[in-house]
């Protein structure tokens, strides 16, 4: 059976250092979203813990045995929704390696997909910030797609979205949606995109992006001043071109003759 339309809810959760509180808050918001007609619910990255390399080990859990996964499974079933569980720090039992991992559940509460963040957030902006996820986390080794009654979906986590090959591959495999737990970005490859992030903590060490201009929902013209010299600085500080994972996808540029 396929369904041609559905309501989606992205939960912008205020995350604290209290894991139990985060899980309970997420459960309440998921149930609230379902009561308002949502059939697909998305949580943000690291919804059960503060985000930062200093926190990953402390909050890491086994999948599927950990308390966060069990809570998500039970809540997806109670709410009768597809639940894209943002991400949690995962500790692999066999190796002890840590991953930033998204778990996905169907309306019966069954774990139907698991995505480990493929592109780790390693940046070095001179005089501002150095952040290296790879000092703690291991990268995932596969792209993730799963089937629902609404169609095929794809999953990405935060920095993954800066590498459009993932969305392009999902689209070419027939996916109608890609869920990004983190921040907001559209795409021009004819696929719906849903993004979800935590409520913004202005006291956090790192803030992503700069808003050049904004406007409400009314009809209007929006303007922004573009300073091209900033582009070179950004490209040097956040070196996306050096972080491609061609072991997982082809170099699309190589086919541009």
Description:
The structure is a single chain. 21% of the residues lie in helices and 23% in strands. With 257 residues, the chain is an alpha/beta fold. The strands form three sheets. Strands 1, 2, 3, 4, 5 and 6 form a six-stranded mixed sheet that branches. The protein has a four-stranded mixed sheet with strand order 9-10-11-12, covered by helices on one side. A two-stranded antiparallel sheet has the order 7-8. A hairpin with a 6-residue loop joins strand 4 (88-91) and strand 5 (98-105). Helix 1 packs parallel to helix 3 (67-79). The protein is globular and about 50 Å long. Residues 183-190 and 218-222 have low confidence and may be disordered.
Number of helices: 5
Radius of gyration: 18 Å
Q: Into which percent range does the helicity of residues fall?
A: 10-25%
- In terms of structural class, how would the helical and strand content be classed? alpha/beta
Please give the alpha-carbon distance between the first and last residues. Answer: 42 Å
Short description:
Helices cover 21% and strands 23% of the residues. The chain contains five helices and twelve strands. The strands form three sheets. Strands 1, 2, 3, 4, 5 and 6 form a six-stranded mixed β-sheet that branches.
Features:
six-stranded mixed β-sheet, 5 helices
List the helices and strands and how they pair.
Blueprint: E1 8-10, H1 19-35, E2 40-42, H2 53-59, H3 67-79, E3 82-84, E4 88-91, E5 98-105, E6 111-116, E7 122-125, E8 129-132, E9 144-148, E10 151-157, H4 165-172, E11 175-181, E12 192-196, H5 229-237
Parallel strand pairs: 1-2, 2-3, 10-11, 11-12
Antiparallel strand pairs: 3-5, 4-5, 5-6, 7-8, 9-10
Helix pairs in contact: 1-3
């Amino acid at each position: 059976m396929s369904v041609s339309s559905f309501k989606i809810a992205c939960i912008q959760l205020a995350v604290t250092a209290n894991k139990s509180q985060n899980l309970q808050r997420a459960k309440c918001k998921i149930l609230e979203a379902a009561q308002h007609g949502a059939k697909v619910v998305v949580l943000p990255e690291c919804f059960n813990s503060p985000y930062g390399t200093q926190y990953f080990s402390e909050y890491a859990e086994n999948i599927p045995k950990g308390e966060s996964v069990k809570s998500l499974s039970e809540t997806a079933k109670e709410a009768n929704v597809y639940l894209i569980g943002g991400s949690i720090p995962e500790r692999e039992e066999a190796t002890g390696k840590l991953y930033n991992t998204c778990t996905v559940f169907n309306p019966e509460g069954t774990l139907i997909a698991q995505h480990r963040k493929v592109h780790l957030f390693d940046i070095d902006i001179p005089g501002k910030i150095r952040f290296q996820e790879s000092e703690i986390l291991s990268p995932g080794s596969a792209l993730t797609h799963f089937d629902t009654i609404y169609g095929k979906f794809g999953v990405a986590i935060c920095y993954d979205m800066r590498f459009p090959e993932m969305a392009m591959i999902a689209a070419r495999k027939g996916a109608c949606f890609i869920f990004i737990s983190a921040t907001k970005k559209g795409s021009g490859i004819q696929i719906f995109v849903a993004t979800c992030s935590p409520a913004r903590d202005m006291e956090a060490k790192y803030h992503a992006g700069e808003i050049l201009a904004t406007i409400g929902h009314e009809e209007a013209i929006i303007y922004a001043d573009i300073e091209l010299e900033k582009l070179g600085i950004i490209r040097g500080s956040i070196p996306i071109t050096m972080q491609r994972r061609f072991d997982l996808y082809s170099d699309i540029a190589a086919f541009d003759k």
